[in-house]
Design brief:
With about 110 residues, the chain is an all-alpha fold. It has helices at about 5-20, 25-35, 35-50, 55-70, 70-80, 85-95, 100-114.
Length: about 110
């Protein structure tokens, strides 16, 4: 199955956090309702891509911090998935720094929904 709707939603979550196109109050519910694995993987991918030396790191990582501060639920979700078998599988199979946005979303959504 393609899980097109789920992939679009996950891609939107990553996009709004990465690009800052929506304010935190508007994206909060997206992340609160999402699977903890998806939240964790999106955060991990953004942290790997926007490391301390990256010119956009302050904005991207600042939005993650702001989201987690605004919603302890989101922060708990991200932490709770650290040892999830799907996260472990992904991290053994893929390098966050090298996987594209599209491949990240496709692989995780298919694993979660499949």
């Amino acid at each position: 199955m393609s899980f097109a709707h789920e992939k679009r939603l996950a891609a939107r979550m990553l996009e709004v956090l990465e690009d800052g196109t929506l304010p935190i109050p508007e994206i909060r519910s997206l992340f609160e309702e999402a699977d903890p694995v998806l939240v964790h993987v999106i955060f991990a991918w953004l942290r790997a891509r926007y490391h301390a030396g990256h010119p956009a790191s302050a904005g991207v990582l600042g939005r993650i911090v702001a989201l987690c501060s605004a919603s302890p639920t989101v922060a708990r979700k991200a932490r709770s998935a650290e040892s999830d078998p799907i996260v472990e599988w992904f991290e053994e199979s893929w390098d966050y720094r090298e996987v594209s946005r599209e491949d990240l979303i496709s692989e995780i959504v298919e694993k979660l929904e499949g």
